[in-house]
């Protein structure tokens, strides 16, 4: 018995073959997708390790970055002549403390914060005059006392270096006051000397506390007091009113240059500490981040200088001007740590010296204060 089959033309047979091939390809593609998904899941446990919290930290601004953004935003408005005077004055008054916070929170922006705070103080004073109001915001920069400070969490070399600068400035101002130089008074000279004495006391206290923690006997040797009390002031005697600043080649009042050189020397002392800290942190760091640039004064703080106006003659600049965003602080201090509080106190003190120099007529534009 024969089975009858339906006759299929060659065209129909070719179409069936094409359909079969098409479905075969779809099934193969689906199988490939499932296999790849399975392999991805099985290999996910072998992915590259990640640092815990690293991605989160890159999305959250540090204390340094927050301080820098706030201070820069205020300062940009202050410097814009088209803004209302009242707004510029308000933000200039606010920018003073904001730049002090930058100096305290950012290890490599200490000097920049100090200088910018003094510039903001000068802006606030000038705008207050134009507005016809009494501006008390600059008082924190004209009279900074360490009488109520019991300890500072900074190195002894920083404190002694600053003490030398204050003592030298005190003697220089005393000589200028005796010659009736403009703006120089005995009261300012006494304040410089008293500040130097207080810094030595704080350095001794730091030395005793360090020795007590490191030595069970609690004995400590006295620190080396670098103050000389009397300094060579031959240039002051011949140029009591105005003189050319050897660091910049700009002419200004002799008293103003005494104050700016005091600030330069103190910034150099603080920069010596931060540079050592940066190196220590860099040596122990395992992340391989770029090392921070130095933001301290390039002034030479050697105690063997002839006098306070010729000192630091090779130090044109006080700090490096950085405008490409905030640097992250190298130290992992919280905003309320003892070190941060100490750096804020020192920043206020040094900024007051710079503000005095500006008030006495020292040029306050960036090219006289910052490197390019």
Question: Could you describe the 3D structure shown?
Answer:
With 372 residues, this protein is an all-alpha fold. It has a domain at 144-281 and 294-325 and 335-371. It is built from eleven helices and four strands. α4 crosses α11 (338-359), α5 packs across α11 and α7 (156-178) runs antiparallel to α8.
Features:
mainly alpha; 372 residues; two-stranded antiparallel ribbon; 3% strand; elongated
Mean pLDDT across the residues is 77
Give me the count of strands. Answer: 4
**Biggest beta-sheet profile:** 2 strands, antiparallel
* Series of H and E elements: HHHHHHHHHEEHEHE
Strand order of the largest sheet: 1-2
The separation of the N and C termini measures: 106 Å
Query: In percent, how helical is the residue content?
Result: 55-70%
Q: Which regions have little confidence, pLDDT < 50, spanning 5+ residues?
A: 278-306, 309-335
| Alpha-beta content class | mainly alpha
Helical segment tally? 11
Overall shape: it is: elongated
């Amino acid at each position: 018995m024969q089975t009858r089959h339906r006759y299929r033309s060659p065209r129909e047979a070719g179409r069936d073959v094409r359909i079969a091939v098409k479905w075969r390809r779809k099934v193969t593609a689906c199988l490939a997708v499932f296999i790849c998904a399975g392999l991805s899941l099985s290999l996910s446990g072998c992915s590259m390790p990640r640092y815990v919290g690293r991605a989160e930290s890159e999305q959250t601004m540090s204390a340094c970055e927050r301080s820098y953004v706030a201070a820069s935003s205020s300062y940009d408005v202050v410097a814009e002549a088209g803004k209302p005077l009242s707004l510029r004055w308000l933000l200039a008054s606010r920018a003073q403390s904001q730049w002090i916070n930058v100096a305290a929170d950012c290890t490599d922006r200490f000097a920049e914060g100090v200088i910018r705070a003094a510039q903001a103080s000068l802006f606030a004073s000038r705008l207050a005059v134009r507005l016809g109001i009494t501006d008390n915001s600059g008082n924190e920069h004209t009279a900074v006392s360490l009488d109520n400070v019991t300890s500072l969490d900074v190195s002894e070399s920083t404190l002694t270096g600053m003490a030398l600068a204050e003592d030298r400035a005190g003697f220089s101002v005393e000589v200028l006051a005796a010659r009736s130089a403009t703006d120089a008074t005995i009261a300012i000279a006494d304040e410089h000397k008293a500040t130097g004495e207080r810094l030595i006391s704080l350095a001794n206290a730091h030395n005793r506390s360090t020795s007590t923690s490191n030595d069970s006997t609690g004995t400590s040797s006295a620190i080396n007091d670098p103050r000389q009390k009397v300094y060579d002031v031959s240039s002051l005697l011949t140029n009591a009113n105005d003189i050319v600043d050897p660091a910049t080649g700009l002419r200004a009042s002799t008293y103003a240059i005494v104050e700016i050189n005091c600030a330069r020397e103190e910034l150099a002392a603080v920069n010596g500490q931060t540079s050592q800290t940066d190196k220590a942190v860099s040596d122990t760091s395992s992340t391989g981040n770029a090392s921070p640039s130095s933001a301290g004064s390039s002034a030479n703080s050697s105690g063997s200088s002839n006098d306070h106006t010729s000192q630091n003659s090779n130090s044109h600049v006080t700090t490096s001007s950085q405008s490409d965003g905030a640097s992250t602080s190298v130290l992992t201090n919280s905003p309320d740590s003892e070190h941060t509080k100490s750096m804020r106190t020192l920043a206020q003190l040094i900024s007051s010296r710079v503000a005095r120099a500006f008030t006495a007529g020292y040029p306050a534009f960036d090219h006289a204060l910052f490197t390019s």
